[in-house]
């Protein structure tokens, strides 16, 4: 499905400086914009007529919680929203029941409508920490998908060939390797594409793994005599390790509802090199401001100070400016060996208690095996003393337990 080339349109509109600036903002940090010349013309037409573009992001709420990796696309939506365009936050309550097969070797279990609604309740509330909720159009694709019925679904399916669907890399690989492909999975790209028809989308955003589906939307719009949407794909954000994509299962994530001090501390742990990637994909600073910061670092400014700016910006976005200031103070205190003021208090029983069980029961480690591994690595302290004995039995008393740089608890053991 090649969309690299497009015939030049007759009577092209002139591209103003404002449109060039809007294009630069749109392209910042993106993986690909198809087709750039078409989108420039859409922007120019919007400028001339005063009619904002309709910009769509479809999300299937398969899980309720978001991390910073999820906000990469939302950040781009906010930037486009700030340019004055209509942002459509589309909740895929219908498509979630099909299950997005993108990048999977097995059929994704479909969700029930009840599961989707439950997840969607917190989804938009969290997304609103990035988007301006007053300027966001919220839609559910069941509005038009439910009305299609069997006849409408058959008519929609007639607009696309199996050969084109099987061009999708994950389907082709599964077929080649003998992995089953359910018929309902083949409908997913069509239903996502039909969303663009129903919403008359000018631009659709998605991750790089969504490119095929977004292109289907362009094709279907042509079938329905609409001007085809442009598509903008955003890269997947690497996690705190700087290698794997951000994921809760890999433990390298920053949750957008995490406490401010935890969020700030995690952001300060990224490498100096990775910091610029986070600036490109997460910061609302202008391109010029980021370039200025890069130049200052090149001229001797401590990268840590620039990382502090990033951490405070993101914590402020999801909490407040006061919370960001407090998080910085907390981080400085910890880096000097200090103990935060607001650590949780935990009461346990069973003294003497093994160090692994104590850490698990205090909520400082997910399991005893993880706890003992951290003891072996020198990452556990009791009252500022490093614990190296994994066989330690902790006697009754009250003490401050620290795991790593950021986890603390005041434990009372009886």
From TrEMBL:
Signal peptide location: none
Functional description taken from the UniProt entry: Catalyzes the attachment of tyrosine to tRNA(Tyr) in a two-step reaction: tyrosine is first activated by ATP to form Tyr-AMP and then transferred to the acceptor end of tRNA(Tyr).
GO molecular function terms attached to this record: ATP binding; RNA binding; tyrosine-tRNA ligase activity
NCBIfam families: tyrS (TIGR00234)
Top class in the EC scheme: ligase
Family in the record: Belongs to the class-I aminoacyl-tRNA synthetase family. TyrS type 2 subfamily.
Compartment(s) of residence: Cytoplasm
PROSITE patterns assigned to the protein according to its UniProt record, in alphabetical order: AA_TRNA_LIGASE_I, S4
Catalysis: reaction(s): tRNA(Tyr) + L-tyrosine + ATP = L-tyrosyl-tRNA(Tyr) + AMP + diphosphate + H(+)
Principal subcellular localization: cytoplasm
Keywords: Aminoacyl-tRNA synthetase, ATP-binding, Cytoplasm, Ligase, Nucleotide-binding, Protein biosynthesis, RNA-binding
Upper taxonomic lineage: Bacteria, Pseudomonadati, Pseudomonadota, Betaproteobacteria, Burkholderiales
Species for this entry: Oxalobacter formigenes OXCC13
Protein name: Tyrosine--tRNA ligase
A Pfam entry, by short name: tRNA-synt_1b
Motif ('HIGH' region): 61-70
SUPFAM superfamilies (UniProt xref): Alpha-L RNA-binding motif (SSF55174), Nucleotidylyl transferase (SSF52374)
GO biological process, one term: tyrosyl-tRNA aminoacylation
Record-annotated RNA-binding S4 domain positions: 353-414
GO CC list: cytosol
Motif 'KMSKS' region positions after renumbering to this chain: 245-249
